[in-house]
Amino acid sequence: xxxxxxxxxxxxxxxxSKITAVEQYVLRYWETxxxxxxxxxxRAGNRIYTNKDIQLVLQIKSLLREKKYTxxxxxxILQNYIPEIVVQHINSPSQTDIYPVTHAExxxxxxxxxxxxxxxxxxxxxxxxxx
Length: 131
Hints:
CATH architecture of the largest domain: Orthogonal Bundle
Strand order of the largest sheet: 1-2
Number of strands: 6
Largest sheet: 2 strands, antiparallel
Number of domains: 2
CATH topology of the largest domain: Multidrug-efflux Transporter Regulator, Chain: A, Domain 2
């Protein structure tokens, strides 16, 4: 996916269209179909998109155009989508890429970490008992 390490807080619909390579009318349509995609509007009534909105647009685009999901299928996938999660590449720490992560994946990772910590705790308790 595209690098979103841009300094701006808000983007116009034309900027988002250029960044994501999705036409403006498609962005407006997706707002009606995907309840997660709700950009704010400024005083003039123009849409203002955040980085999270752009991440979501890229995820929707990927699901619909690359993975060939239907709109209904994409809606089901997006129920578990967490757009805030940003992962850095280990090989290039200066570059931040966006990876969609589901709640299920987060829970699985959290459970794995918890299990590891419990094992470490048991080892420490065993070592303390030996002293």
